Each structure stands twice: as structure tokens, then as C-alpha cells.
């Protein structure tokens, strides 16, 4: 092939080269749930209802081995999350080890147990990307959802981040109780201009499911939110990338959950179990292998839990013959279990799912009983700190 | 937004290449990764805040001497525009 052909084939069709590698079946991202300990008590926490205790957490050296195995196995990125990953006293050492292993390191944090010195140490150790969660645009809303005073500290962290050259994402978790503050949230975004802002609708698993009745937005709220974010996207183009994660109960088709079961992502829990997604332990009968006993590669390739819903053999109608099965992989297995009672069923949020009427009934209930001018007494189930 | 020919693009905060020893070469960024090959790798390596778009174009003209220079320049500008929109480069 002559060089001009190489040039043409590479750059002619620009969008085709701007894409993540998806063709090979290697994990691309490792989610490292370092701990379930957390200073916040958010009513939508994605952690399981049964939290791992401190004494069950993996020691530093095991994590260091896991990062090396992950990089060797083709993993590109590691997300440090929890709980609050900064609750680990060895967090700087873990960032350093993951970066040394060749991974792109993201910290997904509340920003709470942090000071300027610690932030500088994390970045010095090789942290690539700092994702700060915000629970609202004001202290009052943030406190209602997290049952903690945290908002002023988050604004301090945003100031400190300006002194560093590190990737910054702001993550607002949105739901019926704070979606009306969207304009004020966008004001925070415009003031600090992070590379990316995510408006992530609460997903209904774990604590989120337990509090769903108080969190699910109305259709009118959602429509207004979509319009506001569309305008914001245009306004912020070239400065901040705006990402909106829709509440999938309102979607026509399901989300391609974790990019497809066992296709792109591995999650290691604080005590070392390896899961295809953070909620997978709600599915009864699945056995999860541990990094204490097996290598990451062995688990990725051979463990029963990763093979269970990989590919298409497990699919039922209508997924089995649906043209969209390569796009959404049948949706979320955990949601299928939680709403349809069968982890192999089509995700019930899909408009083609036989169980979609269950989701419609939930939406009808929230849309008929909540009007924007109503205030409602909040009765959240807050997650504890293990 | 298209870059000026005098602009000096550089990788945005939180965006970097993986190590030389890692194959394939990838541009790593928050939550995403972009596979680089041939010209896209050469372009990204020159997004160092020192080279102007004009200088990057000239380097590519020399490497891809059999392709029409204006075409290369147009493609380069289009690629940088896309990287900018995705918040992978600043200029």
C-alpha cells in the first residue's frame, strides 16, 4: 500500500477512527471499588444493600497485583470508586501503582476527605482524571439527599483543581428532588469549566430502588431537563462536554448496560470479588470468583458469572431475533431480575419487552400523583457507613 | 470550531497517549479511548502546544508526499476540529 493510500484510509473517514476499540473481547475498563466506607449516605447509592466491612477490604499489595494483571490483560483504564476511595489511607500509593502498571487512572469521589496537599499528592502520583460528584446546586438539597454537609467542601475542591492540569468531570446525580436546580448546576459548570459534565439520572438498583418513589422524575420535569441540556450543550461546545444519562424507565429502548455483559468491563468489590457490573450480586445463583484465588484473566475468560450472559445464547424473545441486540445486548440483566423476576428476560424498560407494562404502571403512578407545584415530605432510606 | 493555521494545538487536561511500549497506541481520555494509527498518531504526537497547525501540515506533507497537500491540510484541520469538539485538544 502506498503512503497516500494509508493516509486516505486512515483519515478520509474521520469518524471511523474516532472510536473506542470494541472489536476484540478484552476488558477495557476496570472498576476498582476500593471500599464501601463513605462519609455520604446518599439515598440512591449504587452500592449493595449489604456493605463490605473495613476488615474485609483487600490489602494494598493485592490491589497492586490486580492492576498489573489488568494492564497485562489489555485493560486501558481503571476507575477508583467505592464508597469513597479517599477513605483508603493508601490511596496515593494505589494511584501510583495503577499508573506505573500502565493504566489511565480516574478517581470518582465525593471530594470529602481531601485537602490541597492530598490532591497535589494524588496528581503527583499520576492521577489522570478527577471526577467530583455533586448532589445538588445548593447545600440544602445536597444535604437532604446525602444526609451530610458536603457542598461547601466540593466548591473548595473545585477551586483547588484550577491550580492543576488534570482531567476534571463534574457528576451531578439528578432525580425528582433536585432536577429543578438544573440552571444553578449549569452555573457551577460555567464558572469552573470542567472538561466534562455528566448529568446522571439515578438508576434504580440498591438504595436507589429502595427510594424510587421519592426519586423518579415526572415526564414534565424530564422534558424540561432535556431542553435545558440541549441549549447548554450548544452554549458550552468546545469548553465542556455535556453528557446526559437518561432515566431509562422513560426510554424507548434499554441502555447497553456496561457495554454488554462481560464485553468491556470488570468490577472488583472491596473484598475482591470480580463482577461483570456493580449490581450483579442481586442475581441469585451467580457465583463470583475472587482475585484472592484466581488471576483476573482467568476470571474474565472462564468464570461462570462472566460467561452466563456473554454473547447471545442466553437471550429470550424478543431479544433473540431483534435487530437491536447488537446495540443494547438486551439491556440490563439486573434490571430484568429486579422488575421482571428473571435475569435472562428482555430489560423491562424496552418498549418491545412483554413486561413493559410494569414500568408503565410505575411511571403512571409518579406522573399522576406529583405536580411541580406540590412540595412533598421526604422520607429517604439513607445508606449507612459500614 | 476550526483551528487557525497559526494555532498551537495541545492535548487537553486529562488526555494523554499511552506508553510507547503499549500496542496499539491509544489516546486516553476520561471514560474513553481512541485508537491511533498512521497519520492520527503523528498528528496527536505533534499536538504539544509548540507546533502550529501549519507546521504540523508541512510535516505531514513531507511524510505523505504522494497525497495532494491541500487535501492533507483539509483533513488535518477537520481532525483537529473533531478532537477539539470531543475535548481531546485545546487550541
Query: For the report, how would you describe the main beta sheet of chain A?
Result: 9 strands, mixed
Uncertain segments of chain B are none
Assign the structural class of chain B, choosing from mainly alpha, mainly beta, alpha/beta, alpha+beta, or little secondary structure: alpha+beta
What would the principal axes of the Cα set say about the shape of chain A? Answer: globular
What structural class do you assign from the helix and strand content of chain A?
alpha/beta
Rounded to an integer in angstroms, the radius of gyration calculated over CA atoms of chain B is 13 Å
Average the pLDDT over all residues of chain A and give the rounded result: 90
Q: What is the overall number of helices of chain B?
A: 3
| Beta-strand content estimate of chain B | 15-25%
Helical amount of chain A: 25-40%
Structure description:
The complex is a heterodimer of chains A (386) and B (91). With 386 residues, chain A is of the alpha/beta class. In chain A, 36% of the residues lie in helices and 12% in strands. Chain A has 16 helices and nine strands. Chain A has helices spanning 3-11, 14-17, 60-72, 91-100, 116-124, 139-146, 151-161, 182-192, 206-210, 212-215, 219-235, 296-302, 304-308, 325-328, 333-340, 356-369, and strands at 29-33, 77-81, 104-109, 129-134, 167-174, 196-201, 241-245, 265-268, 274-275. A nine-stranded mixed beta sheet of chain A has the order 7-6-5-4-3-2-1-8-9. In chain A, strand 1 (29-33), helix 3 and strand 2 form a beta-alpha-beta unit. In chain A, helix 3 (60-72) runs parallel beside helix 4 and helix 4 (91-100) runs parallel beside helix 5 (116-124). Chain A is globular, with a radius of gyration of 21 Å. Chain A starts with a helix and ends in a 17-residue tail after the last helix. The relative contact order of chain A is 0.13. Chain B is of the alpha+beta class and 91 residues long. Chain B has three helices and five strands. Chain B has a three-stranded antiparallel beta sheet, with helices on one face. In chain B, strands 1-5 form a two-stranded antiparallel ribbon. In chain B, helix 2 (53-63) crosses helix 3. Chain B is globular, with a radius of gyration of 13 Å. Chain A binds chain B through residues 2-4, 6-12, 14-15, 17-21, 28, 76-77, 102, 104, 106, 128-129, 131, 165-169, 195-196, 237-238, 240-241, and chain B through 1, 12-16, 18-19, 21-22, 24, 26, 28-40, 60, 63-67, 72, 75-76, 78-79, 82-87.
Amino acid at each position: 500500500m502506498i503512503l497516500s493510500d494509508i493516509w486516505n484510509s486512515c483519515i478520509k473517514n474521520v469518524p471511523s477512527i474516532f472510536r473506542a476499540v470494541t472489536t476484540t473481547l478484552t476488558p477495557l475498563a476496570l472498576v476498582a471499588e476500593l471500599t464501601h466506607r463513605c462519609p455520604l449516605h446518599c439515598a440512591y447509592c449504587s452500592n449493595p444493600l449489604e456493605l463490605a466491612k473495613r476488615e474485609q477490604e483487600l490489602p494494598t499489595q493485592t490491589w497492586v497485583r490486580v492492576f498489573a494483571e489488568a494492564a497485562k490483560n489489555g485493560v486501558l483504564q481503571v476507575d477508583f470508586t467505592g464508597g469513597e476511595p479517599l477513605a483508603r489511607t493508601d490511596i496515593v500509593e494505589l494511584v501510583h501503582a495503577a499508573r506505573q502498571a500502565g493504566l489511565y487512572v480516574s478517581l470518582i469521589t465525593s471530594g470529602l476527605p481531601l485537602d490541597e496537599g492530598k490532591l497535589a499528592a494524588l496528581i503527583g502520583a499520576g492521577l489522570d482524571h478527577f471526577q467530583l460528584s455533586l448532589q445538588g446546586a445548593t447545600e440544602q438539597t445536597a444535604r437532604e439527599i446525602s444526609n451530610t454537609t458536603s457542598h461547601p467542601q466540593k466548591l473548595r475542591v473545585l477551586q483547588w483543581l484550577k491550580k492543576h492540569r488534570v482531567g476534571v468531570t463534574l457528576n451531578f446525580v439528578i432525580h425528582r428532588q433536585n432536577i429543578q436546580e438544573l440552571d444553578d448546576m449549569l452555573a457551577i459548570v460555567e464558572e469552573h469549566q470542567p472538561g466534562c459534565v455528566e448529568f446522571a439520572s439515578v438508576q434504580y438498583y440498591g438504595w436507589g430502588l429502595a427510594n424510587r418513589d421519592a426519586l423518579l422524575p415526572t415526564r414534565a420535569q424530564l422534558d424540561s431537563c432535556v431542553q435545558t441540556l440541549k441549549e447548554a450543550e450548544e452554549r458550552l461546545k468546545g469548553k465542556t462536554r455535556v453528557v446526559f444519562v437518561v432515566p431509562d424507565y422513560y426510554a424507548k429502548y434499554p441502555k447497553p448496560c456496561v457495554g454488554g455483559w462481560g464485553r468491556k468491563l470488570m468490577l472488583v468489590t472491596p473484598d475482591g470479588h470480580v463482577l461483570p457490573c456493580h449490581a450483579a450480586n442481586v442475581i441469585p445463583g451467580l457465583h463470583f470468583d475472587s482475585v484472592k484465588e484466581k488471576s483476573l484473566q482467568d476470571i474474565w475468560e472462564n468464570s461462570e458469572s462472566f460467561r452466563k450472559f456473554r454473547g447471545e445464547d442466553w437471550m429470550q424473545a424478543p431479544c433473540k431475533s431483534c435487530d437491536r441486540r447488537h446495540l443494547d445486548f438486551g439491556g440490563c440483566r439486573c434490571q430484568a431480575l429486579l422488575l421482571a423476576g428473571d435475569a435472562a428476560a428482555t430489560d423491562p424498560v424496552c418498549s418491545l419487552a412483554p413486561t413493559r407494562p410494569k414500568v408503565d404502571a410505575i411511571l403512571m403512578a409518579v406522573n399522576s400523583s406529583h405536580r411541580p407545584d406540590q412540595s412533598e415530605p421526604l422520607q429517604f432510606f439513607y445508606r449507612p457507613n459500614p | 470550531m476550526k483551528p487557525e493555521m497559526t494555532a498551537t494545538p495541545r492535548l487537553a487536561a486529562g488526555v494523554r497517549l499511552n506508553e510507547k511500549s503499549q500496542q496499539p497506541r491509544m489516546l486516553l481520555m476520561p471514560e474513553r479511548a481512541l485508537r491511533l494509527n498512521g497519520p492520527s498518531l503523528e498528528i496527536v504526537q505533534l499536538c504539544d502546544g509548540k507546533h502550529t497547525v501549519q507546521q504540523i501540515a508541512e510535516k505531514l506533507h513531507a511524510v505523505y508526499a504522494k497525497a495532494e497537500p491541500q487535501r492533507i491540510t483539509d483533513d488535518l484541520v477537520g481532525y483537529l476540529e473533531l478532537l477539539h469538539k470531543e475535548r481531546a485538544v485545546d487550541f
